[in-house]
Amino acid sequence: MDQKIISLAAEKTADRLQEFLQTLKEDDLADLLQNQAVKGKAAGALLRAIFKGSPCSVEAGALRRLKVYTCGIQLVESGDLHKEVASEIIGLLMLEAHNFPGPFLVELANEFVGAIQEGSLMNGKSLELLPIILTALATKKENLVYGKGELNGEECKKQLINTLCSGRWNQQYVIQLTSMFKDVPLTAEEVEFVMEKVLRMFSKLNLQEIPPLVYQLLVLSSKGSRKRVLEGIIAFFSELDKQHNEEQSGDELLDLVTVPSGELRHVEGTIILHIVFAIKLDCELGRELLKQLKAGQQGDFSNNICPFSIALLLSVTRIPRFEEQVFDLLKTLVIKSFKDLQLLQGSKFLQNLVPHRSCVSTMILEVVKNSVHSWDHVTQGLVELGFILMDSYGPKKIFDGKTIETSSGLSRMPNQQACKLGANILLETFKIHEMIRQEILEQVLNRVVTRASSPISHFLDLLSNIVMYAPLVLQSCSSKVTETFDYISFLPLQTVQGLLKAVQPLLKVSMSMRDSLIIVLRKAMFASQLDARKSAVAGFLLLLKNFKVLGSLSSSQCSQSVGVSQVHVDVHSRYNSVANETFCLEIMDSLRRCLGQQADVRLMLYEGFYDVLRRNSQLANSIMQILLSQLKQFYEPKSDVLPPLKLEACILTQGDQIALQEPLDYLLCCIQHCLAWYKSRVMPLQQEEEEEEEEGFYQDLDDMLESITNRMIKSELEDFELDKSADFSQSTGVGIKNNICAFLVMGVCEVLIEYNFSISNFSKNKFEEVLSLFMSYKKLSDVLNEKAGKGRTKTANKTNDSFLSMKFVSHLLTALFRDSTQRHEESLSVLRSSNEFMRYAVSVALQKVQQLKETGHVSGPDGQNPEKIFQNLCDITRVLLWRYTSIPTSVEELGKKEKGKSISLLCLEGLQKVFSAVQQFCQPKIHQFLRALDVTDKEEEEVEVSVNERAAFQIRQFQRALLNLLSSQEEDFNSKEALLLVTVLSSLSKLLEPSSPQFVQMLSWTSKICKEYSWEDASFCKGLMNLLFSLHVLYKSPVTLLRDLSQDIHGQLGDIDQDVEVEKTNHFAMVNLRTAAPTVCLLVLSQAEKVLEEVDWLITRLKGQVSQEIISEQASSQAALPNHPVEKAIIMQLGTLLTFFHELVQTALPSGSCVDALLKDLCKMYTILTALVRYNKKSKSLTHTGEKEKTAAVATAMARVLRETKPIPNLIFAIEQYEKFLIHLSKKSKVNLMQHMKLSTSRDFKIKGNILDMVLREDEGDEDDEGTASEHRGQNKEPAKKKRKKEMKCLS
């Protein structure tokens, strides 16, 4: 039968074929087709023949075709056919589909939809036919019966797609169905239906099925809905990541159901690749991604900024046209995230309203962690981002050459954090990805070399961390490091020191690198630039410190800790130590030559020798020999010759140039410290096997120092030719020389004071010598100060640097103030009898702390060792605290005869510096520090006292001191001490937890002081008010406080209308006639500005959320609900602020800064009101107060128009904008918001004639003023006619 059909089909006409087919039953035809298809014979030929004999124009033919289609689809789905046969059948069915009449197409499509919803498809092969059927249907223009109504083809297609997307899809056909839609012509609305359906299916699929589905979705997105696709994908993976992290950090039992971490990351990586590929082909998709993420950063970005979207962005940077935009977006995201965090941390008001958000930095570091799962497409972007952050936000250079990196001002905090994040990204990427290590190292080293002029400490820190992590791995990159060494001669000293310190662990594992460094350093030693020679000395000293010679004492800080697990090249093995000894002695030879160079080079050497000795004690002999022979050149051996030192030999005269040749004071200081260390650490161990000739050095040095001491005491100023009659001017050669000599003598005296005190063992004679040395120092210091006071500039900076070491200062202060041992009593009374000596000891301690605050380290031995510095700082603080609290300033000043600050006041100043330095540099050790201050704290006590309680205990001591001061008579009130106490309280209050009762008590105490005490001291008032505000903002919003203060200011200064008498409120006694303006006024205005900034931030955030809610329709029903408390809070804040401004604008403020600040804040206020009106329809409650305040504001502004013209046009413009949007809102909301508002005519300035005459008489040059006034008004954005009219009125 099949042969007959095929042979009939071969005839020219189809008449006989049609007749034959009509004789067949439908089932016969179906069976015939099935048999042929299963056998795989001529199924295709048979189908063609049947179609030829079943024209669609005849109803019977069309029905036969329908039956064949149904049969064909079942056959293909059955899975019984060969692939080729199935494909042939589907191909033929596709070809003929467009010939079907509309109703049959609808019927076929309905069968498909039914099969999909019932899940009766077996292998989904027939789905290829559905797009053809839907496309054919869409072309039918006639009305077709669909369901109960009639629709045209396009509408039928829409209904079918709607039904299809509303029903259930079997998960195995999701990908095929999605792929199918790309061949169907869809409208935007239909694309939206399909997208929503597919995105809903994500959660039902296996993880491995999602990448191909995403691929199909992205192909489909070319028809529209790009935004929805990206949103859906990002939201799905964001949620998946969250669940994954919760499960990982949660119960271990959950591990059974969790997707393995590696699998999830691989899937995410594949999807990111798909999206990036799609963006390359469709730039619109890339633009949509950026647009969407930019919008997200405005509101609460937790919706679409997550580790997945950041990884996606970083991959997009590989597309050149998007690279710059993406990095700009990421930079903005990072810095905004840190700024928001800072804003939140500084305001309790915001913390209560805004939930804690995850920080972008955490997300980026998570991306680094995830990138270990072959995310090679992300790593390059990560590295670039790390460097961009470090370059953009690293420390900056300021005018005097210092860097700003040490200042921890709040404004710099986000920048510092962004820079630190950049370094963390690079370090973590370096740890994870071997492929990229070389590139990171090269880029860091390039920056170290090429950016010599700008601060690069952040790159050196990163380099140090990289080297510490993997010294052995970096051996492969040694060529790059040795190449960097070649530039050492040209780099600044600080950079060289940082660089060598960072790569030092590499030198221990790579001999070739060490050798190349030594060659470079030797060359540098004889370079013509002074900096290069100093760098050579620094390099050699570093090597000496770190290559220990066998037999050297172990010191707890001996060597920089190297990544011990990696460096198993044992540096202390017998062979290495012998090699090290030869190596170190060679270096010592090189260094010995430095002693013939400039003073700066020698000085570096003297400063470094002590550290070398402490870490490499076997070099003691060589070092001591060098120092001894150097000292002999300047030492007068005859014991009766005064002075004992040849100062002339220390000064070099070349023509007119006079310079220091030998820093003798530093030489003696170095000798003294090395000698002390040697006696305490090495000699006790050597006593059994002591060798006579070795002992000689130390005995010689001791004798020489003893002799110098005795002769320095006997020497008068005349012996040095430095008496009062000497010339100390900087303009003459003799004057410069005398200055240099004077500083050398003072330095030598200080060194000898420390030497004699440390060897004294509390002997009275020695202490008398110490005091005599101090008197010599003091005499010379007085002469210098007296000469400098006579109009000459202060001499060299060395006066700022005492030679006493910090450790000695802490011992000295403890002995002077806290040593109550009976047998020390008599000898210490010698020193205690001199108030000047005690004041000197405290002032040196202050100098050391100041140095620590400014640079992060101190001069002298162990000055770079944070542990030792911290220990000494604790000891010094304990003494200063005891001295200040036990002998108050008032008691001390009663019997005081000398000029200058009292010791108690100096102690307080020291405490103020210490507390701020500790918070800056020792933040993690605060608890340890406070415990060290507590003298009553016994070591045995097991009970742990919190930082809060310890800080509160210290705060109470200073509160008592301030209360005593405030209770004293007015003439006894010491303003400087009061201000210092407030500063100390401010520092300590930062240690209190804002939620603790101690904090609340501190706040109420400060508030009480401001309310009850009235002192007419502006700086004290400012300090106290600042403290009050800084505490208040961490407890609740300060608007009510501002309102009360504004009423006090109004009461004190009176009203602008002189006829009005203002009732004095007196909330705060601290606000009086003297302090109200400008002190308190400027303070409250700056505080109001901060509140306005917070409100502005909240409104911007709300706007961002609204724009996101418009996108997601699900949220539209409750759009207003989540924001309700925020909106209410904004309106409360602004309402109270309006009252505050209302008070101030009616106050008779003095012209100048107060009025300028007020007008600027008013301008900001109106801009924010306008923003609120534009955002929301709920702001009508504000407009009532708004009108009162506005009129008054403008009235007062106009009254002063001749004086302060600049800010006024801006204010008027802001008011008019506010009115404009208020009118818009009135129309929209059908509520008359303008009922209390009178449209502003304040531009046409009304000036009272009598006042104008008076002003004109006072100031003859007022015509010029008028000219400038009209010019400024011209800046306003008003029509020209109105401007002219206004000017005429002003002048009339």
TrEMBL record:
Superkingdom of this protein's organism: Eukaryota
Residue span(s) of domain FANCI solenoid: 64-280, 378-541, 803-1028, 1041-1183, 1186-1252
Residue segments, region Disordered: 1258-1292
Residue ranges, compositional bias (Basic residues): 1280-1292
Compositionally biased residues, Acidic residues: 1259-1268
CDD domains: FANCI (cd11720)
Domain FANCI solenoid 1 cap: 1-53
Pfam families membership: FANCI_HD1 (PF14679), FANCI_HD2 (PF14680), FANCI_S1 (PF14675), FANCI_S1-cap (PF14674), FANCI_S2 (PF14676), FANCI_S3 (PF14677), FANCI_S4 (PF14678)
InterPro entries, alphabetized: FANCI, FANCI_HD1, FANCI_HD2, FANCI_S1, FANCI_S1-cap, FANCI_S2, FANCI_S3, FANCI_S4
Composition skew (Basic and acidic residues), residue ranges: 1269-1279
Domain named FANCI helical: residues: 284-370, 555-784
Full protein name: Fanconi anemia group I protein isoform X2
Provenance organism: Ceratotherium simum simum
Lineage: Eukaryota, Metazoa, Chordata, Craniata, Vertebrata
Gene that specifies this protein: LOC101401939
